[in-house]
């Protein structure tokens, strides 16, 4: 994968394919990416996170519940749960509610 001129590029069938990064936070660097089990692409950046469903982007930051703007890592878990690592430590979980304890 590569990022250039407002697009994310990936190699498929001997061809570079381009995904527009509409709404991408200006000046942000991509720090990690992963796909959830349902095929949605997630990016972490130095200014939040992005979700691409194959057609459009949705961007998230601390106002949406992230613990930090500057993210360094991303991991996907069961039921499309996402874990975001913050620049200065810390972890944010996005996903379905946890089951209530007894």
Give average pLDDT, whole number. Answer: 85
Strand content: over 45%
The total strand number stands at 10
Rg from alpha-carbon coordinates: 14 Å
Count up the helices: 0
**Terminus-to-terminus distance:** 45 Å
Output the structural class.
Answer: mainly beta
Shape: globular
How many structural units, i.e. domains?
A: 1
Element order: H for helix, E for strand: EEEEEEEEEE
- Sketch the major β-sheet: 4 strands, antiparallel
Structural account:
The protein has 102 residues and is mainly β. It has one domain (2-94). 0% of the residues lie in helices and 49% in strands. The protein has strands at residues 2-4, 7-12, 15-20, 30-35, 41-45, 48-52, 57-60, 71-76, 82-86, 91-94. The strands form three sheets. Strands 4-5-6-7 form a four-stranded antiparallel beta sheet, with no helix packed on it. Strands 1-2-3 form a three-stranded antiparallel beta sheet, with no helix packed on it. It has a three-stranded antiparallel beta sheet with strand order 8-9-10, with no helix packed on it. A hairpin with a 2-residue loop joins strand 5 (41-45) and strand 6. The model has no long low-confidence stretch (mean pLDDT 85).
């Amino acid at each position: 994968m590569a990022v250039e001129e407002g697009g994310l590029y990936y190699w498929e069938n001997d061809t570079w394919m381009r995904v527009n990064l509409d709404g991408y936070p200006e000046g942000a660097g991509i720090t990690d990416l992963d796909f959830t089990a349902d095929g949605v692409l997630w990016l972490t950046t130095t200014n939040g996170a992005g979700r691409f469903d194959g057609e459009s982007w949705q961007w998230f930051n601390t106002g949406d519940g992230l613990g930090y703007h500057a993210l360094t890592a991303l991991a996907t878990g069961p039921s499309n749960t996402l874990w975001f690592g913050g620049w200065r430590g810390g972890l944010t979980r996005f996903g379905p509610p946890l089951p209530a304890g007894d």
